Amino acid sequence: MSSKTLTVGAIVLATGLSQGLVATQPAVAAKYSAATAKTFYEWCMVPRKTSAVKATVEALFWAAGTKRCAQAAKRLVDREELTLKNLSVRDLRPIAGLPKLKKLVLDRNPVRDLSPLRQLKQLQMLSVNYSTLKTLKGIEQLESLEALSIDRTLVTDLGPIGRVSQLRELSARGNGIQNIASLSGLKKLRYLALENNRIDELTPLTFLTELQELHLSRNAIRSIQPLSGLVVLKTLILSHNKIQDFRTLQVLPSLKRVELLGMVITKNPCPLMLKRGICVYHQKPGSEKVAKELITPSRSSEPKKLESNSIKPVKN
């Protein structure tokens, strides 16, 4: 066989391989595409992924301990808990393809849209702290959600949360939130943390009668009277607000821990019925000392670390 024949044959073979490779691409694209993908495996197999989808798939590879789509899917499909912190996760659609998830932690990721998670009907706990999240749209479709943490995000509108009626725990610290009207319908709420916001009105909390722990430090609160009906409340943190009248504390029978640091107080505000509990506050220097104080207050008008205060448990 001549060299010319070999050359021609090589060209034909190369052309055929090239055409074959090109021909397979449409077939793969038709079978797996972003428009139709639902499961993690399908998202993993999508060719020409966007950078956001690719980053999420890579994060799930890390969680699965493998970079093979089939193997990763097999390891993840029955997973009930998943933690993906600081892994550049932005597009949540591949995660939404894991239907058995009950606990999902996405802290420190550039997450902006939670709506893909509406497919996770068994999800009970979601954390997206320190993220770029701006809206809670779609959260109301998580019909099993009981705990939500959105600390230090860009969320200022809690509106959609009002429709998550089964919610028991909510943490939204440091978000610049002012309006909490949407929380009024969360009758099952037991834990609520709203420190470092702009809240000045507590009326929406009036009928949250199952609340046991409430954190409201560093807001603009002047009155705590709306809390008078919270008869099972055990922990109340109110430091660094603008409160002057503390009489409501006297009608909260279940209180075990009260913190009132960073406010000018002239009389002992601690509930007289507080038993086997702790009450911490700052007393204005030179004010009249209250007999039989439940604790010894700090004499500085500036807040101190808890361990620097003289705190004594209340005796029966």
TrEMBL record:
<feature type="region of interest" description="Disordered">
    <location>
        <begin position="292"/>
        <end position="316"/>
    </location>
</feature>
<dbReference type="InterPro" id="IPR001611">
    <property type="entry name" value="Leu-rich_rpt"/>
</dbReference>
<keyword id="KW-0433">Leucine-rich repeat</keyword>
<keyword id="KW-0677">Repeat</keyword>
<dbReference type="InterPro" id="IPR003591">
    <property type="entry name" value="Leu-rich_rpt_typical-subtyp"/>
</dbReference>
<dbReference type="InterPro" id="IPR050836">
    <property type="entry name" value="SDS22/Internalin_LRR"/>
</dbReference>
<dbReference type="Pfam" id="PF13855">
    <property type="entry name" value="LRR_8"/>
</dbReference>
<dbReference type="InterPro" id="IPR032675">
    <property type="entry name" value="LRR_dom_sf"/>
</dbReference>
<protein>
    <submittedName>
        <fullName>Leucine-rich repeat domain-containing protein</fullName>
    </submittedName>
</protein>
